[in-house]
Automatic annotation (TrEMBL):
Keywords: Membrane, Transmembrane, Transmembrane helix. The chain crosses the membrane at residues 6-27, 34-54, 60-82, 89-110, 116-134, 155-173, 179-201, 213-232, 238-256. It comes from Candidatus Roizmanbacteria bacterium CG_4_8_14_3_um_filter_36_10. This is Uncharacterized protein. The keyword Amino-acid biosynthesis does not apply.
Amino acid sequence: MDNIFLLKLILAFLTGGTWVLIATIIADKFGSKIGGLIAGLPSTLLFSLLFIGWAQTPAIAVKAASIVPIIGGINTLFLVIFSSKIKRGLLISLIYAFALWIILSFLAVILRFHNFNVILLGYVLMFSFSYYVFEFKLKIPSIAGKKIQYTRQQILLRGLLSGLIVSLSVLFGKIGGPTIGGMFGMFPAMFTSTLIITYLTHGPQFSSAIAKSSMISSISIVVYAVAVRHSYNSLGLVYGTVLATLVSFFSGYLIYKYVIKKVRYQKSFVIYGH
C-alpha cells in the first residue's frame, strides 16, 4: 500500500468520522433540516478530488468530477429507497437501498457516460423523481431537535462507526479493481453512517427526515463537481479547491434558505434508545 493512499485512507477516516459526528450532533440539537444540510455538503468528495489532483494531475481530477452528477442522482434514489422501507427496520431498508445502489452503480460504471450534458440531465431526472417521492408520496416532514446528554462512549462510537464506513469505502475502491473500485467510488458512505446513527439515536421517523434534507442539500455536491471542472483548469489545484468549496457551501446556504427551510415541520419526536 503506497504512502499517498495510506494518507488518504487515514484522512478519510478522520474527516468522515468528524464530519458525520458534527452532522449528527447538530441534528440532535437543531433538527433534521440543519443536520441534513451538513450531511449533504461535500466532504469526502472534496478530499477525494484533491488527492486525485495531487497524486496524479488536476486534469484527471476534472475527469473524475465529471461523473459526480450521476453519482449524486443514484444516491438520491438510495435515500428514497431507504426511507420507503424504513418501517420494516434498519437492516431491511439498508439491504433494499444497497441493492438498488449496486445495480445502478454497476450500470453507470459499465456505460461510462462521456457527455456531461447527458450526465447532468440524468441527475436532474433522478433528483426530481426522488424529491417528488419524498414530498408527495412519503410525505416526510422535518423534525425539530431536542437536547441530549452525551457520554464519551456515545461520541466515540459515532466517530468510529462513521469513520470506519467512509474509510472502508475508500479501501474497497482501491482494491476492488476497475469495475468494483469504480462502483465504490460512488458509495454514499456519509449518508449511510449518518442514517444509521440517527436511526439508532432517534428512530426511523427522524432518520427519514434526515434523508430528505440530505437529498436536497446534496445539490451542493453536484455544484462542487461542476465548479471543480472549471476552477481546476483555470486556477490550479489549491486555489481551484478553495473556490469550488466556497461556491458549493454558498449554494448549500441558498438551498437551505429557499428550499429546506420551507419544508413542512414537525416540532416534536420521540427519542429512541435513551
